[in-house]
Amino acid sequence: MKPAHEKYIPFKPLKNENRRWPDKVLKEAPVWCSVDLRDGNQALVEPMNLDEKLLLFKTLVETGFKEIEIGFPSASETEYEITRTLIKGGHIPDDVWIQVLVQAREHLIRKTFEAVRGAKNVIVHLYNSTSALQRKVVFKTDMQGVTDIAVQGAGLVYELARESAAQGMNVRFEYSPESFSGTETDFAVDICEQVMDALHASSENKVILNLPHTVEGCTPNCYADQIEYFCDHLKNRENAVISIHPHNDRGTGIAAAELAMLAGAERVEGTLFGNGERTGNLDIINAALNMYSQGIDPGLDFSNVIKLREIYEKTTKMRVHERHPYAGELVFTAFSGSHQDAIKKGMDYMLEQGGDYWEVPYLPIDPADIGREYEPVVRINSQSGKGGAAFIMQNYFGYKLPKAMHPEFGELVQRECDRIGKEMTAQDVFALFSREYLEVNYPYNLKTFRLLERSDDAEPVRFEGVLRWKHEDHEISGTGNGPIDAFFGALQEAGIKDYEFLFYDEHAISGGADSKAAAYIQMRSPDGKKVFGVGVDNNISIASIKGVICAINRTQPKKSS
Ligand code: KIV
Ligand code: ZN
Known about the structure:
It contains 18 helices and 14 strands. It has helices spanning 4-7, 36-42, 50-63, 77-88, 106-115, 132-139, 143-166, 185-198, 220-233, 253-262, 284-292, 305-316, 337-353, 386-397, 406-420, 426-438, 483-493, 540-555; strands spanning 31-34, 67-71, 97-103, 121-129, 170-178, 207-213, 240-246, 267-270, 444-452, 461-469, 472-480, 500-508, 517-524, 530-537. Helix 10 (253-262) links the parallel strand 7 and strand 8 (267-270).
Protein backbone atom coordinates (compact mmCIF):
# COMPACT_ATOMS: atom_id res chain seq x y z
CA MET A 1 0.00 0.00 0.00
CA LYS A 2 1.14 3.49 -0.78
CA PRO A 3 1.81 5.58 2.36
CA ALA A 4 -1.65 6.83 3.30
CA HIS A 5 -0.70 10.47 3.78
CA GLU A 6 0.67 10.57 0.24
CA LYS A 7 -2.60 9.48 -1.22
CA TYR A 8 -5.58 10.40 0.93
CA ILE A 9 -6.75 13.82 2.07
CA PRO A 10 -8.16 13.66 5.59
CA PHE A 11 -11.63 15.04 6.24
CA LYS A 12 -11.50 18.60 7.60
CA PRO A 13 -13.86 18.68 10.57
CA LEU A 14 -16.20 21.61 10.97
CA LYS A 15 -15.62 23.85 14.00
CA ASN A 16 -18.82 23.51 15.98
CA GLU A 17 -18.25 25.98 18.81
CA ASN A 18 -21.69 25.40 20.27
CA ARG A 19 -21.66 21.60 20.42
CA ARG A 20 -24.40 20.23 22.70
CA TRP A 21 -25.33 16.88 21.20
CA PRO A 22 -22.90 14.71 23.25
CA ASP A 23 -24.88 15.50 26.40
CA LYS A 24 -28.22 14.59 24.89
CA VAL A 25 -30.11 11.31 25.16
CA LEU A 26 -32.47 9.90 22.55
CA LYS A 27 -36.02 9.94 23.87
CA GLU A 28 -38.27 9.36 20.90
CA ALA A 29 -38.24 7.80 17.46
CA PRO A 30 -37.83 10.00 14.40
CA VAL A 31 -40.14 9.99 11.39
CA TRP A 32 -38.87 7.07 9.35
CA CYS A 33 -38.80 7.18 5.58
CA SER A 34 -38.07 4.01 3.67
CA VAL A 35 -36.02 4.44 0.52
CA ASP A 36 -35.94 0.71 -0.25
CA LEU A 37 -37.83 1.06 -3.50
CA ARG A 38 -35.59 3.84 -4.79
CA ASP A 39 -32.09 4.00 -3.26
CA GLY A 40 -32.19 0.30 -2.37
CA ASN A 41 -33.57 -0.66 -5.75
CA GLN A 42 -30.98 1.42 -7.64
CA ALA A 43 -28.26 -0.62 -5.96
CA LEU A 44 -29.51 -4.05 -7.01
CA VAL A 45 -27.76 -6.18 -9.58
CA GLU A 46 -31.21 -6.93 -10.91
CA PRO A 47 -33.68 -4.16 -10.03
CA MET A 48 -37.04 -5.26 -8.66
CA ASN A 49 -39.82 -6.01 -11.10
CA LEU A 50 -43.36 -4.80 -10.61
CA ASP A 51 -44.52 -7.73 -8.49
CA GLU A 52 -41.46 -7.52 -6.27
CA LYS A 53 -41.89 -3.78 -5.77
CA LEU A 54 -45.56 -4.26 -4.95
CA LEU A 55 -44.78 -6.96 -2.42
CA LEU A 56 -42.07 -4.88 -0.76
CA PHE A 57 -44.28 -1.78 -0.76
CA LYS A 58 -47.10 -3.72 0.92
CA THR A 59 -44.62 -5.07 3.47
CA LEU A 60 -43.31 -1.59 4.23
CA VAL A 61 -46.85 -0.35 4.76
CA GLU A 62 -47.60 -3.26 7.08
CA THR A 63 -44.43 -2.51 9.02
CA GLY A 64 -45.80 0.95 9.73
CA PHE A 65 -43.90 3.27 7.37
CA LYS A 66 -45.93 6.39 6.60
CA GLU A 67 -43.40 7.87 4.17
CA ILE A 68 -42.08 5.64 1.41
CA GLU A 69 -39.88 6.72 -1.49
CA ILE A 70 -41.33 4.57 -4.23
CA GLY A 71 -38.92 5.37 -7.02
CA PHE A 72 -37.32 7.71 -9.47
CA PRO A 73 -40.14 7.87 -12.06
CA SER A 74 -38.31 10.13 -14.51
CA ALA A 75 -35.28 7.83 -14.62
CA SER A 76 -36.76 5.07 -16.79
CA GLU A 77 -39.97 3.84 -18.35
CA THR A 78 -40.06 0.91 -15.92
CA GLU A 79 -39.84 3.23 -12.93
CA TYR A 80 -42.54 5.44 -14.43
CA GLU A 81 -44.87 2.50 -15.09
CA ILE A 82 -44.39 1.06 -11.62
CA THR A 83 -45.28 4.44 -10.11
CA ARG A 84 -48.43 4.57 -12.25
CA THR A 85 -49.44 1.02 -11.28
CA LEU A 86 -49.01 1.71 -7.59
CA ILE A 87 -51.23 4.78 -7.87
CA LYS A 88 -53.84 3.45 -10.30
CA GLY A 89 -54.02 0.05 -8.63
CA GLY A 90 -55.13 1.61 -5.35
CA HIS A 91 -52.19 0.12 -3.45
CA ILE A 92 -51.42 3.24 -1.42
CA PRO A 93 -53.30 3.67 1.86
CA ASP A 94 -54.73 7.13 2.54
CA ASP A 95 -52.40 7.79 5.46
CA VAL A 96 -49.20 6.97 3.54
CA TRP A 97 -47.13 9.57 1.69
CA ILE A 98 -45.36 8.32 -1.37
CA GLN A 99 -42.10 10.06 -2.17
CA VAL A 100 -40.57 10.43 -5.62
CA LEU A 101 -37.01 11.49 -6.33
CA VAL A 102 -36.10 13.87 -9.10
CA GLN A 103 -33.01 15.74 -10.22
CA ALA A 104 -33.27 19.51 -10.45
CA ARG A 105 -33.83 19.47 -14.23
CA GLU A 106 -36.89 20.81 -15.95
CA HIS A 107 -37.95 17.88 -18.16
CA LEU A 108 -37.41 15.40 -15.35
CA ILE A 109 -39.46 17.48 -12.92
CA ARG A 110 -42.32 17.69 -15.42
CA LYS A 111 -42.22 13.94 -16.05
CA THR A 112 -42.28 13.31 -12.30
CA PHE A 113 -45.45 15.33 -11.78
CA GLU A 114 -47.01 13.44 -14.68
CA ALA A 115 -46.09 10.16 -13.01
CA VAL A 116 -47.75 10.97 -9.70
CA ARG A 117 -51.06 12.35 -10.98
CA GLY A 118 -54.01 10.89 -9.15
CA ALA A 119 -52.03 10.13 -5.96
CA LYS A 120 -53.38 11.50 -2.69
CA ASN A 121 -50.24 12.37 -0.70
CA VAL A 122 -46.95 13.03 -2.47
CA ILE A 123 -43.54 14.22 -1.32
CA VAL A 124 -41.62 15.56 -4.29
CA HIS A 125 -37.95 15.04 -3.51
CA LEU A 126 -35.65 17.34 -5.44
CA TYR A 127 -31.88 16.99 -5.31
CA ASN A 128 -28.67 18.20 -6.78
CA SER A 129 -25.12 17.62 -5.76
CA THR A 130 -23.44 20.42 -3.82
CA SER A 131 -20.12 19.05 -2.53
CA ALA A 132 -16.78 20.68 -3.24
CA LEU A 133 -15.57 17.53 -4.96
CA GLN A 134 -18.60 17.19 -7.24
CA ARG A 135 -18.54 20.90 -8.11
CA LYS A 136 -14.90 20.55 -9.13
CA VAL A 137 -14.86 17.15 -10.78
CA VAL A 138 -18.36 16.48 -12.08
CA PHE A 139 -20.18 19.76 -12.71
CA LYS A 140 -17.17 22.02 -13.18
CA THR A 141 -19.10 24.87 -11.66
CA ASP A 142 -19.00 27.05 -8.57
CA MET A 143 -21.31 27.51 -5.60
CA GLN A 144 -23.48 29.95 -7.54
CA GLY A 145 -23.81 27.44 -10.37
CA VAL A 146 -25.20 24.67 -8.16
CA THR A 147 -27.37 27.17 -6.26
CA ASP A 148 -28.96 28.29 -9.51
CA ILE A 149 -29.72 24.69 -10.49
CA ALA A 150 -31.39 24.05 -7.13
CA VAL A 151 -33.37 27.28 -6.98
CA GLN A 152 -34.63 27.02 -10.57
CA GLY A 153 -35.65 23.42 -9.98
CA ALA A 154 -37.42 24.33 -6.74
CA GLY A 155 -39.28 27.15 -8.48
CA LEU A 156 -40.65 24.78 -11.09
CA VAL A 157 -41.54 22.17 -8.47
CA TYR A 158 -43.50 24.81 -6.58
CA GLU A 159 -45.37 25.91 -9.69
CA LEU A 160 -46.33 22.37 -10.74
CA ALA A 161 -47.26 21.48 -7.18
CA ARG A 162 -49.76 24.33 -7.10
CA GLU A 163 -51.43 22.87 -10.18
CA SER A 164 -51.52 19.40 -8.62
CA ALA A 165 -52.84 20.80 -5.35
CA ALA A 166 -55.62 22.52 -7.26
CA GLN A 167 -56.63 19.08 -8.49
CA GLY A 168 -56.80 17.74 -4.93
CA MET A 169 -53.32 16.34 -4.32
CA ASN A 170 -51.55 16.94 -1.00
CA VAL A 171 -48.00 17.88 -1.93
CA ARG A 172 -44.98 18.33 0.32
CA PHE A 173 -41.43 19.14 -0.70
CA GLU A 174 -38.09 17.63 0.11
CA TYR A 175 -34.75 19.01 -0.93
CA SER A 176 -31.42 17.15 -0.66
CA PRO A 177 -28.11 18.92 -1.11
CA GLU A 178 -26.57 15.63 -2.23
CA SER A 179 -23.18 14.91 -0.64
CA PHE A 180 -24.11 17.29 2.19
CA SER A 181 -21.35 16.00 4.45
CA GLY A 182 -18.80 16.79 1.75
CA THR A 183 -20.26 20.27 1.30
CA GLU A 184 -19.07 23.37 3.19
CA THR A 185 -21.75 23.54 5.88
CA ASP A 186 -22.28 27.32 5.59
CA PHE A 187 -22.88 26.83 1.88
CA ALA A 188 -25.32 23.99 2.57
CA VAL A 189 -27.23 26.30 4.92
CA ASP A 190 -27.28 29.02 2.29
CA ILE A 191 -28.50 26.87 -0.60
CA CYS A 192 -31.17 25.25 1.58
CA GLU A 193 -32.45 28.67 2.67
CA GLN A 194 -32.75 29.76 -0.95
CA VAL A 195 -34.55 26.53 -1.87
CA MET A 196 -36.92 27.00 1.08
CA ASP A 197 -37.74 30.48 -0.22
CA ALA A 198 -38.38 29.14 -3.71
CA LEU A 199 -40.70 26.52 -2.23
CA HIS A 200 -42.50 29.07 -0.04
CA ALA A 201 -41.69 27.11 3.12
CA SER A 202 -43.91 27.91 6.07
CA SER A 203 -44.70 26.34 9.40
CA GLU A 204 -47.84 24.82 7.76
CA ASN A 205 -45.93 23.53 4.77
CA LYS A 206 -42.51 22.70 6.11
CA VAL A 207 -39.83 21.72 3.63
CA ILE A 208 -38.00 18.53 4.42
CA LEU A 209 -34.29 19.32 4.26
CA ASN A 210 -32.59 15.99 3.80
CA LEU A 211 -28.89 16.12 4.60
CA PRO A 212 -27.24 13.06 3.06
CA HIS A 213 -24.09 11.40 4.21
CA THR A 214 -23.95 10.31 0.56
CA VAL A 215 -20.52 8.80 0.90
CA GLU A 216 -19.67 8.35 4.53
CA GLY A 217 -16.35 10.15 4.54
CA CYS A 218 -15.90 11.15 8.16
CA THR A 219 -16.45 9.85 11.65
CA PRO A 220 -20.01 9.98 13.04
CA ASN A 221 -19.17 12.82 15.45
CA CYS A 222 -18.16 15.05 12.53
CA TYR A 223 -21.46 14.36 10.77
CA ALA A 224 -23.32 15.14 14.01
CA ASP A 225 -21.42 18.42 14.32
CA GLN A 226 -22.49 19.35 10.81
CA ILE A 227 -26.14 18.55 11.55
CA GLU A 228 -26.15 20.53 14.79
CA TYR A 229 -24.38 23.47 13.16
CA PHE A 230 -26.83 23.36 10.24
CA CYS A 231 -29.84 23.41 12.59
CA ASP A 232 -28.35 26.28 14.61
CA HIS A 233 -27.63 28.44 11.58
CA LEU A 234 -30.65 27.83 9.36
CA LYS A 235 -32.95 30.84 9.14
CA ASN A 236 -36.60 30.00 9.71
CA ARG A 237 -35.67 26.67 11.23
CA GLU A 238 -39.33 26.22 12.21
CA ASN A 239 -40.27 25.97 8.53
CA ALA A 240 -38.08 22.91 7.96
CA VAL A 241 -38.00 19.27 8.94
CA ILE A 242 -34.38 18.16 9.32
CA SER A 243 -33.91 14.76 7.76
CA ILE A 244 -30.81 12.59 7.44
CA HIS A 245 -29.82 10.02 4.87
CA PRO A 246 -26.77 8.10 6.06
CA HIS A 247 -24.84 5.65 3.95
CA ASN A 248 -22.41 3.17 5.39
CA ASP A 249 -19.08 3.43 3.56
CA ARG A 250 -17.05 3.47 6.76
CA GLY A 251 -19.33 0.90 8.39
CA THR A 252 -20.60 3.51 10.84
CA GLY A 253 -23.96 4.38 9.29
CA ILE A 254 -25.88 3.44 12.42
CA ALA A 255 -23.59 5.46 14.68
CA ALA A 256 -23.79 8.42 12.32
CA ALA A 257 -27.59 8.28 12.37
CA GLU A 258 -27.77 7.98 16.13
CA LEU A 259 -25.42 10.90 16.74
CA ALA A 260 -27.14 12.97 14.06
CA MET A 261 -30.47 12.41 15.83
CA LEU A 262 -28.88 13.67 19.05
CA ALA A 263 -27.73 16.67 17.01
CA GLY A 264 -31.25 17.55 15.91
CA ALA A 265 -32.35 15.29 13.04
CA GLU A 266 -36.09 14.62 13.24
CA ARG A 267 -36.50 12.36 10.24
CA VAL A 268 -34.40 9.44 9.05
CA GLU A 269 -34.17 7.85 5.63
CA GLY A 270 -32.92 4.31 5.22
CA THR A 271 -33.73 0.81 4.10
CA LEU A 272 -34.52 -2.62 5.48
CA PHE A 273 -31.32 -4.48 6.30
CA GLY A 274 -29.36 -1.47 4.97
CA ASN A 275 -29.64 -2.37 1.30
CA GLY A 276 -28.28 0.44 -0.87
CA GLU A 277 -25.50 1.75 -3.03
CA ARG A 278 -22.03 0.28 -2.27
CA THR A 279 -21.98 -0.62 1.45
CA GLY A 280 -25.61 0.35 1.75
CA ASN A 281 -27.96 2.85 3.30
CA LEU A 282 -28.75 3.14 6.97
CA ASP A 283 -30.39 -0.07 8.19
CA ILE A 284 -33.69 1.12 9.64
CA ILE A 285 -34.42 -2.20 11.35
CA ASN A 286 -31.12 -1.96 13.18
CA ALA A 287 -31.60 1.70 14.14
CA ALA A 288 -35.20 1.15 15.23
CA LEU A 289 -34.44 -1.95 17.30
CA ASN A 290 -31.51 -0.18 18.94
CA MET A 291 -34.08 2.35 20.14
CA TYR A 292 -36.45 -0.40 21.19
CA SER A 293 -33.70 -1.99 23.30
CA GLN A 294 -33.38 1.37 25.10
CA GLY A 295 -37.05 1.48 25.98
CA ILE A 296 -38.09 3.77 23.12
CA ASP A 297 -41.09 2.80 20.99
CA PRO A 298 -39.68 2.83 17.44
CA GLY A 299 -43.13 3.20 15.89
CA LEU A 300 -42.42 0.36 13.46
CA ASP A 301 -43.44 -3.25 13.81
CA PHE A 302 -40.57 -5.70 13.56
CA SER A 303 -42.34 -8.48 15.44
CA ASN A 304 -41.61 -10.94 12.65
CA VAL A 305 -38.13 -10.12 11.51
CA ILE A 306 -37.63 -13.53 9.95
CA LYS A 307 -40.63 -13.07 7.66
CA LEU A 308 -39.30 -9.64 6.77
CA ARG A 309 -35.92 -11.17 6.01
CA GLU A 310 -37.56 -13.72 3.73
CA ILE A 311 -39.46 -11.05 1.81
CA TYR A 312 -36.37 -8.89 1.57
CA GLU A 313 -34.24 -11.75 0.27
CA LYS A 314 -36.93 -12.76 -2.20
CA THR A 315 -37.52 -9.27 -3.60
CA THR A 316 -33.94 -7.97 -3.67
CA LYS A 317 -32.12 -11.28 -4.16
CA MET A 318 -29.68 -10.04 -1.56
CA ARG A 319 -28.73 -12.08 1.49
CA VAL A 320 -28.81 -11.07 5.14
CA HIS A 321 -25.52 -12.00 6.77
CA GLU A 322 -25.54 -14.51 9.63
CA ARG A 323 -24.13 -11.89 11.99
CA HIS A 324 -26.42 -9.04 10.87
CA PRO A 325 -27.72 -7.25 14.00
CA TYR A 326 -31.07 -8.60 15.18
CA ALA A 327 -31.87 -10.43 11.94
CA GLY A 328 -28.87 -12.67 11.24
CA GLU A 329 -29.19 -16.41 11.69
CA LEU A 330 -26.59 -16.52 14.46
CA VAL A 331 -27.22 -13.38 16.47
CA PHE A 332 -29.20 -15.09 19.21
CA THR A 333 -26.86 -18.03 19.40
CA ALA A 334 -24.26 -18.45 22.10
CA PHE A 335 -21.46 -20.90 21.43
CA SER A 336 -19.33 -20.13 24.45
CA GLY A 337 -20.03 -22.17 27.56
CA SER A 338 -19.78 -19.24 29.96
CA HIS A 339 -22.20 -17.23 27.82
CA GLN A 340 -24.64 -20.14 27.71
CA ASP A 341 -24.41 -20.46 31.44
CA ALA A 342 -25.06 -16.74 31.96
CA ILE A 343 -28.02 -16.83 29.56
CA LYS A 344 -29.53 -19.75 31.41
CA LYS A 345 -29.07 -17.94 34.72
CA GLY A 346 -30.65 -14.84 33.22
CA MET A 347 -33.66 -16.80 32.00
CA ASP A 348 -34.02 -18.52 35.39
CA TYR A 349 -33.75 -15.14 37.10
CA MET A 350 -36.49 -13.74 34.87
CA LEU A 351 -38.76 -16.67 35.75
CA GLU A 352 -38.03 -16.50 39.47
CA GLN A 353 -38.46 -12.74 39.73
CA GLY A 354 -41.42 -12.56 37.39
CA GLY A 355 -40.28 -9.01 36.63
CA ASP A 356 -41.32 -7.08 33.55
CA TYR A 357 -37.89 -5.90 32.47
CA TRP A 358 -35.57 -7.89 30.28
CA GLU A 359 -32.42 -8.72 32.20
CA VAL A 360 -30.62 -11.51 30.42
CA PRO A 361 -26.88 -11.25 29.82
CA TYR A 362 -25.65 -11.49 26.22
CA LEU A 363 -29.12 -10.97 24.77
CA PRO A 364 -29.68 -7.24 24.26
CA ILE A 365 -33.34 -7.88 23.49
CA ASP A 366 -35.77 -10.71 24.03
CA PRO A 367 -35.60 -12.67 20.74
CA ALA A 368 -39.31 -13.42 21.09
CA ASP A 369 -40.12 -9.71 20.63
CA ILE A 370 -39.01 -9.89 17.03
CA GLY A 371 -40.49 -13.30 16.33
CA ARG A 372 -37.38 -15.27 17.05
CA GLU A 373 -37.32 -18.19 19.38
CA TYR A 374 -35.22 -19.22 22.28
CA GLU A 375 -34.66 -22.39 20.33
CA PRO A 376 -31.45 -21.32 18.63
CA VAL A 377 -30.11 -19.46 21.62
CA VAL A 378 -27.79 -22.18 22.76
CA ARG A 379 -25.86 -24.45 20.48
CA ILE A 380 -23.89 -27.34 21.72
CA ASN A 381 -20.37 -27.87 20.56
CA SER A 382 -17.15 -28.94 22.21
CA GLN A 383 -16.71 -25.38 23.56
CA SER A 384 -20.03 -25.44 25.39
CA GLY A 385 -20.18 -25.50 29.13
CA LYS A 386 -22.21 -27.83 31.28
CA GLY A 387 -25.00 -25.23 31.55
CA GLY A 388 -25.69 -25.34 27.81
CA ALA A 389 -26.69 -29.00 27.75
CA ALA A 390 -28.84 -28.52 30.85
CA PHE A 391 -30.46 -25.51 29.19
CA ILE A 392 -31.36 -27.60 26.15
CA MET A 393 -32.77 -30.39 28.29
CA GLN A 394 -34.93 -27.98 30.28
CA ASN A 395 -36.10 -25.62 27.55
CA TYR A 396 -36.63 -28.12 24.78
CA PHE A 397 -37.59 -31.30 26.58
CA GLY A 398 -38.73 -30.28 30.06
CA TYR A 399 -36.05 -32.17 32.01
CA LYS A 400 -34.77 -29.99 34.85
CA LEU A 401 -31.49 -31.74 35.55
CA PRO A 402 -30.39 -31.02 39.10
CA LYS A 403 -27.37 -28.77 39.32
CA ALA A 404 -25.26 -31.57 40.81
CA MET A 405 -25.86 -33.55 37.61
CA HIS A 406 -24.76 -30.79 35.19
CA PRO A 407 -21.03 -31.65 35.24
CA GLU A 408 -21.70 -35.34 34.60
CA PHE A 409 -24.05 -34.77 31.67
CA GLY A 410 -21.99 -31.83 30.37
CA GLU A 411 -18.94 -34.08 30.18
CA LEU A 412 -20.86 -36.74 28.27
CA VAL A 413 -22.03 -34.09 25.80
CA GLN A 414 -18.53 -32.72 25.30
CA ARG A 415 -17.13 -36.17 24.76
CA GLU A 416 -19.83 -36.87 22.19
CA CYS A 417 -19.08 -33.60 20.38
CA ASP A 418 -15.41 -34.50 20.25
CA ARG A 419 -16.32 -37.98 18.99
CA ILE A 420 -18.58 -36.79 16.18
CA GLY A 421 -16.39 -33.77 15.48
CA LYS A 422 -19.26 -31.30 15.08
CA GLU A 423 -21.93 -29.34 16.81
CA MET A 424 -24.85 -31.26 18.36
CA THR A 425 -28.44 -30.32 17.72
CA ALA A 426 -30.98 -30.28 20.52
CA GLN A 427 -32.27 -33.63 19.21
CA ASP A 428 -28.75 -35.05 19.36
CA VAL A 429 -28.46 -33.94 22.97
CA PHE A 430 -31.74 -35.61 23.84
CA ALA A 431 -30.76 -38.81 22.01
CA LEU A 432 -27.56 -38.94 24.05
CA PHE A 433 -29.51 -38.36 27.27
CA SER A 434 -31.87 -41.14 26.29
CA ARG A 435 -29.05 -43.56 25.53
CA GLU A 436 -27.17 -42.69 28.69
CA TYR A 437 -30.08 -42.58 31.15
CA LEU A 438 -33.47 -43.63 29.83
CA GLU A 439 -32.65 -46.78 27.89
CA VAL A 440 -30.16 -48.28 30.31
CA ASN A 441 -31.45 -51.74 31.25
CA TYR A 442 -28.32 -53.83 31.30
CA PRO A 443 -27.03 -55.74 33.22
CA TYR A 444 -30.00 -55.21 35.57
CA ASN A 445 -33.52 -55.05 34.19
CA LEU A 446 -36.57 -54.98 36.40
CA LYS A 447 -39.04 -57.19 34.57
CA THR A 448 -42.07 -57.12 36.90
CA PHE A 449 -42.73 -55.84 40.34
CA ARG A 450 -45.37 -54.71 42.80
CA LEU A 451 -45.31 -52.42 45.75
CA LEU A 452 -47.44 -53.32 48.72
CA GLU A 453 -48.08 -49.89 50.19
CA ARG A 454 -48.95 -49.65 53.86
CA SER A 455 -52.33 -48.60 55.15
CA ASP A 456 -50.85 -47.00 58.23
CA ASP A 457 -47.50 -45.28 58.69
CA ALA A 458 -46.21 -47.84 61.20
CA GLU A 459 -46.27 -50.63 58.57
CA PRO A 460 -43.27 -51.02 56.26
CA VAL A 461 -43.64 -50.86 52.47
CA ARG A 462 -42.95 -54.17 50.71
CA PHE A 463 -41.36 -54.56 47.32
CA GLU A 464 -41.63 -57.80 45.30
CA GLY A 465 -40.39 -58.28 41.78
CA VAL A 466 -38.40 -60.14 39.15
CA LEU A 467 -35.01 -58.68 38.38
CA ARG A 468 -33.17 -59.90 35.33
CA TRP A 469 -29.39 -59.91 35.66
CA LYS A 470 -27.85 -60.30 32.23
CA HIS A 471 -29.94 -63.27 31.04
CA GLU A 472 -31.12 -64.74 34.31
CA ASP A 473 -34.29 -63.84 36.17
CA HIS A 474 -34.25 -63.53 39.98
CA GLU A 475 -37.17 -63.04 42.28
CA ILE A 476 -36.38 -60.33 44.78
CA SER A 477 -38.25 -58.79 47.70
CA GLY A 478 -37.60 -56.39 50.54
CA THR A 479 -39.18 -53.99 52.97
CA GLY A 480 -38.49 -50.42 53.97
CA ASN A 481 -39.89 -47.07 55.10
CA GLY A 482 -40.84 -46.10 51.59
CA PRO A 483 -40.80 -47.55 48.08
CA ILE A 484 -37.15 -46.72 47.37
CA ASP A 485 -36.09 -48.02 50.75
CA ALA A 486 -38.04 -51.24 50.15
CA PHE A 487 -36.46 -51.65 46.75
CA PHE A 488 -33.04 -51.06 48.26
CA GLY A 489 -33.83 -53.74 50.81
CA ALA A 490 -34.73 -56.15 48.01
CA LEU A 491 -31.47 -55.40 46.22
CA GLN A 492 -29.47 -56.00 49.36
CA GLU A 493 -31.18 -59.34 49.87
CA ALA A 494 -30.28 -60.22 46.27
CA GLY A 495 -26.65 -59.46 47.05
CA ILE A 496 -26.43 -56.06 45.33
CA LYS A 497 -24.76 -54.35 48.22
CA ASP A 498 -22.63 -51.39 49.22
CA TYR A 499 -24.33 -48.84 47.00
CA GLU A 500 -24.75 -45.55 48.84
CA PHE A 501 -27.73 -43.31 48.13
CA LEU A 502 -26.43 -39.71 47.80
CA PHE A 503 -29.00 -37.44 46.22
CA TYR A 504 -32.59 -37.39 45.07
CA ASP A 505 -34.64 -34.93 43.06
CA GLU A 506 -37.87 -35.17 41.08
CA HIS A 507 -40.28 -33.06 39.03
CA ALA A 508 -43.27 -33.41 36.76
CA ILE A 509 -42.35 -33.31 33.07
CA SER A 510 -45.53 -32.25 31.34
CA GLY A 511 -48.89 -30.97 32.51
CA GLY A 512 -52.29 -32.59 32.01
CA ALA A 513 -53.59 -36.07 32.71
CA ASP A 514 -50.66 -37.89 31.12
CA SER A 515 -48.05 -35.94 33.03
CA LYS A 516 -44.96 -37.92 33.89
CA ALA A 517 -42.47 -37.66 36.69
CA ALA A 518 -38.71 -37.64 36.33
CA ALA A 519 -36.56 -38.80 39.23
CA TYR A 520 -32.82 -38.12 39.46
CA ILE A 521 -30.84 -40.32 41.79
CA GLN A 522 -27.18 -40.11 42.56
CA MET A 523 -25.45 -43.16 44.03
CA ARG A 524 -21.96 -44.03 45.08
CA SER A 525 -20.84 -47.45 43.83
CA PRO A 526 -18.84 -49.89 45.97
CA ASP A 527 -15.65 -48.72 44.23
CA GLY A 528 -16.42 -45.07 45.11
CA LYS A 529 -17.74 -43.85 41.73
CA LYS A 530 -20.53 -41.23 41.93
CA VAL A 531 -23.16 -41.65 39.23
CA PHE A 532 -26.57 -40.32 38.38
CA GLY A 533 -29.50 -42.40 37.26
CA VAL A 534 -32.76 -41.12 35.80
CA GLY A 535 -36.17 -42.76 35.89
CA VAL A 536 -39.34 -41.58 34.18
CA ASP A 537 -42.81 -42.91 34.87
CA ASN A 538 -46.40 -41.83 35.49
CA ASN A 539 -45.89 -42.95 39.05
CA ILE A 540 -43.22 -41.10 40.98
CA SER A 541 -42.31 -44.15 43.15
CA ILE A 542 -41.73 -46.22 40.01
CA ALA A 543 -39.75 -43.38 38.43
CA SER A 544 -37.48 -43.41 41.50
CA ILE A 545 -37.00 -47.18 41.38
CA LYS A 546 -36.11 -46.95 37.68
CA GLY A 547 -33.68 -44.18 38.57
CA VAL A 548 -31.92 -46.41 41.11
CA ILE A 549 -31.54 -49.26 38.60
CA CYS A 550 -30.31 -46.81 36.00
CA ALA A 551 -27.64 -45.48 38.38
CA ILE A 552 -26.50 -48.99 39.30
CA ASN A 553 -26.38 -50.05 35.64
CA ARG A 554 -24.34 -46.97 34.80
CA THR A 555 -21.63 -48.07 37.22
CA GLN A 556 -21.36 -51.42 35.44
CA PRO A 557 -19.40 -52.19 32.28
CA LYS A 558 -21.53 -51.56 29.16
CA LYS A 559 -22.91 -54.47 27.18
CA SER A 560 -20.53 -55.17 24.35
CA SER A 561 -22.39 -54.98 21.05
O1 KIV B 1 -27.24 9.27 -1.02
C1 KIV B 1 -27.76 10.30 -1.47
O2 KIV B 1 -27.23 11.40 -1.40
C2 KIV B 1 -29.05 10.17 -2.10
C3 KIV B 1 -29.76 11.42 -2.43
C4 KIV B 1 -30.35 11.37 -3.77
C5 KIV B 1 -30.76 11.71 -1.36
O3 KIV B 1 -29.54 9.07 -2.27
ZN1 ZN C 1 -28.60 7.58 -0.93
